[in-house]
Amino acid sequence: MSQPPVRGRFAPTPSGLMHIGNMRTALLAWLQVRSAGGQFVLRMEDIDKPRCRPELAEQALADLRWLGLDWDEGPDIGGPFASYVQSERESFYHEALEKLKEEGRLYPCFCSRAELLMVASAPHGLSSEGPVYPGTCRMLTEEQREERRKDKTPSLRIAAPSHDICFDDLAAGPQRFPSSSGGDFVVRRADGIISYQLAVSVDDAAMGITDVLRGYDLLDSTPRQLLLYETLGLTAPRFAHVPLLLGEDGKRLAKRHGGMAIAAMRANGIRAEYIVGWIAAHSGLLDRPEPVRPDELVELFRLDRIPKEPITVTDAMLRQLTG
Ligand code: GLU
């Protein structure tokens, strides 16, 4: 049987400017797809509307294009699975919620933020999402739920299974997440906002995504997404979680690391080819930073060339960017 075409995606959240860290993820995801002759999808993950801004979504598209990336489907060009903007896809998420409800997997959770913070010192927990939920509201009776609903709108949680979740990560290797590591997680917040976990799984499945390449910080979200795929009867993609670029403080590169925003680099006259070459050199694709276009890297891309450890970006490394 012939394999379906490779379909990958980049899915930025327009809550901040694109910086060299998420640009690297975009470039590597694009290279993975282009080197396999596949289709690349751009999806705007603005489901958490209060945190997102339309002008940042516009800026992200402009930054990606300026760097030399292109996409076959996306918010600006449409495609067979439109819309490519999460805030326009809410009916799909509500359908999925209904299905989870029918499967008997959801329950309302009335715990406050303060109560959840009290379990913050629990030994396990998702780095991307905080501590494991101890299951406080899982056992409430229908009467207790009705009583609580009078003073509080609940969030909705999915009951996690009691078995371990295992998968082979194409970059990080074989993974095993014990049943105790994830806990029951929120699929719809009390304010009605659909969780990242649900939206991303529904969308990747609906858009026929076969390969997800993203940062290592989302590795521990993957068992949750696999659980959603399984419960919703959807086909899961393959995953590759690549080590992150870190700031000198050891934290994931972000806005607080000034000067890393692509728009700022562009305004300072740094050429796109220098940024691409810099990323390629620090991703095992070139021996040293030299100006290059993304399409010149397609032949060189191999997942196993990407270093296995996170990279701390020093000032000296950043100076390489100015040529
Ligand atoms: N929207 C997420 C972010 O910007 C990425 C989601 C994903 O790649 O699964 O962090």
Can you summarize this structure?
The protein is of the alpha/beta class.
Describe how the helices and strands are arranged.
Layout lengths: L6 E4 L9 H16 L3 E4 L11 H14 L22 H13 L3 E4 L3 H6 L6 E2 L3 E2 L10 H8 L5 E4 L6 E5 L3 E5 L7 E4 L7 H11 L4 E5 L6 H11 L5 E5 L2 E2 L15 H6 L4 H10 L12 H4 L13 E2 L2 H5 L4
Parallel strand pairs: 1-2, 10-11, 12-13
Antiparallel strand pairs: 3-6, 4-5, 6-9, 7-8
Helix pairs in contact: 3-6, 6-7
Q: Write down the secondary-structure element order.
A: EHEHHEHEEHEEEEHEHEEHHHEH
Rounded to the nearest angstrom, the distance between the terminal CA atoms is: 49 Å
The CATH topology of the largest domain is Rossmann fold
Count of separate structural domains = 2
Tell how many strands the DSSP assignment holds.
13
**What is the CATH architecture assignment of the largest domain?**
3-Layer(aba) Sandwich
User: Which ligands accompany this protein?
Assistant: glutamic acid
What is the helix content? 25-40%
The geometry reads as: globular
Under CATH at level 1, the class of the largest domain stands as: Alpha Beta
Estimated share of beta-strand residues: 5-15%
Strands across the major sheet, in which order? Answer: 3-6-9
The CATH homology group name of the largest domain: HUPs
Quick check: average pLDDT? 91
Question: How many helices?
Answer: 11
Q: Radius of gyration, Cα only, in angstroms?
A: 20 Å
Structural class: alpha/beta
Largest sheet: 3 strands, antiparallel
InterPro entries: aa-tRNA-synth_I_CS, Glu-Q_tRNA(Asp)_Synthase, Glu/Gln-tRNA-synth, Glu/Gln-tRNA-synth_Ib_cat-dom, GluQ/Sye, Rossmann-like_a/b/a_fold
Protein name: Glutamyl-Q tRNA(Asp) synthetase
Domain Glutamyl/glutaminyl-tRNA synthetase class Ib catalytic: 6-275
Binding site for Zn(2+): 109, 111, 133, 137
